Amino acid sequence: METTMYNEYGSSNVSQLKQEENGMQKGNESETAFAELERGVHAALETYSNVHRGSGHNSMVSSHLYEHARDIVLEYMGLNKEKNITIFCSSKRTNDLTSQLKSGSYQFLTSKEVGLPLGITAVVVGKKALPKGVPSECGGGTARLVAANWIIWNNGPDKFEAGTPAIVNVIAFSKALLLMKQYGKDIFKKLSQKDLSVNELVYKDGLEKYSGPELMKELKQTLIGRGMIVPTMEGERQFVNLDNSASTPTFTPIWNTFRQALRLPEKRRQEVVQEVKTICSEILGAPLENYDIIFTKNTTESINLVSENLINNPENNIDPVVVISLLEHSSNDLPWRMISPNSLVRLGVNKEGFIDLVELEKNLREYNLEYKYAKKRIKIVALSGASNVLGSCHNIKEVSSIVHKYGAKLLVDGAQVVAHLKVDIEKDGIDYMAFSAHKVYAPFGTGVLVVRKGLLNYNLNEKKRIQLSGEENIGGIASLGKALVLLQRIGMDVVHKEEQVLTKRILDGMSKIPGLTVFGVNDSKSPQFNDRIGVIVFETKGILHNTLAEEMFRKGGIGVRYGCHCAHLLVKKITGISPVLEQVQRVVLTVAPKTQLPGVVRVSLGIENTEEDVDILIEVLHKLIQQMKEKPSGAQKKANSKAEADFQKQLDDFSQAAVQRVYA
């Protein structure tokens, strides 16, 4: 089969490349600067992952690139790194944050001022001026440790960057600042715009002749970073990414859409916004006559908008209550805690990760029909469509039927669903759905809130502010549209079937490894196997989760995630953390913030993964667990220490080279 070939910058259009080269040869500095910007961002995408909480080469490099971006902003603005800190926000969240700050304690710089529609604002705040207490936006990353009745908030910028930040856009923004120092502050404002029709931008690519499994096969060949060779303690290996639940990599056609969208004229951008809303509407089964589609920065911001709406629109003689489950990610837990004290009802889950529908109905009946709790009424039931820990998927249609029977509304956290399963919002009776593009192969900083018309009651000025904030990031919106179109052309049934084959292979392989325990639906013959996605968490007897995950990347070149996965309550339950031990954790973490707490290792699948990836995973786990249980001799310890020091040097060199490829 013929495979389309792509160059370093992701273009299959040779004539277009020649035109771009000719433009640079003619001395057009704006074209030269933009080409260098593209090159740097493409390099960042080659090792893209979510930041801070993962193991593996990609997570390490992306974290370094993201944190370095903070320093680039400070240097560009001529501010002291010791006294100031950079926080990256959407424009809406910039207003929310700066409203808590004293005049003169902060400065900010927007991507719009730079001349690029990235939807980024860098807010530089004096460290001593950072607000205390609860952040204005809560969710993943804002808390270090969460219990049912208390929260230890994070320190520094993480506390104010709820959810996954727009990592790639931030890197692009900081790279642009470096180029502005070289070419002048107006260099990107002078860049000529390149008009493309919406059809050319979103629907056209070099893979149009393919569909179904064939398209999936061809698309895999365009994975940016495909075949990346990384150092390990056992020699160079091809990197295996098994961390797709945290964030997904991207593919050449999606990258092309993003970079081309940055140069669209203003008149064309609104057409793109409307077309991507139509794409979301059609693919997600949410007719535009019945649903509003709002672009945000991520899932977390979308859920916070619904929570804020509930707070800001009180009903007479009603105390609003929200039902969630023990499965929920912090982004579908913490925002609801802000409504009022005791505003949450939390449903338990069984050992395979499913709620009890009888318990759900009992709560709704007691609150909304029998009025057992005075003025308290359940207004919203907010559940994950699929757990980011156990992979379990609720029967949303059954849940919706019960929820609406008692006059409540249903919100689905779709962060782990849209890239894996067919979604039909209206058919399933969903009132709100939130998800992020970075989990749908478009990691360019866009989130989506789909909401039934009439349910958001922000005033006109605030609605406008929300809309403009999300729509500033035209590249993120366009690339999301492209990603959804590609998934539709493959077919979500094909995606799910392929994922189930790989999940079965993982579970069957792990079942043969002594001392390894898989949580949730762990038997591929289980009747509930089809009610899960390819997210597998496990622990190994006698080996700490962080130690095993680190060894998987140090010796096997495999990137995974470990810890509590922003689902602290669930992970504490499945790992057997008692209430007493939970209090001990609270004290320990307060005294020693860097203490490693109990957790689990997670592998998670995406459409780029193959049977070969799975076989490498099982082989590496078998070998590592056996090795780590053996007690080394004195000579072996000495040799291991030397090997670790050598590897650390290789790793530092690899990371530094990756950072240089982007920012140099």
From TrEMBL:
Superkingdom in the source lineage: Bacteria
Region described as Disordered: spans on this chain: 1-29
GO molecular function annotations of the record: cysteine desulfurase activity
Biased segments, Polar residues type: 1-17
Cofactor: pyridoxal 5'-phosphate
Catalytic activity entry: (sulfur carrier)-H + L-cysteine = (sulfur carrier)-SH + L-alanine
UniProt-listed Pfam families: Aminotran_5 (PF00266)
UniProt keywords, alphabetically: Pyridoxal phosphate
Domain Aminotransferase class V: 117-194, 266-617
PANTHER family for this protein: CYSTEINE DESULFURASE, CYSTEINE DESULFURASE 1, CHLOROPLASTIC
Family, similarity comment: Belongs to the class-V pyridoxal-phosphate-dependent aminotransferase family. Csd subfamily.
Name of the molecule in the record: Aminotransferase class V domain-containing protein
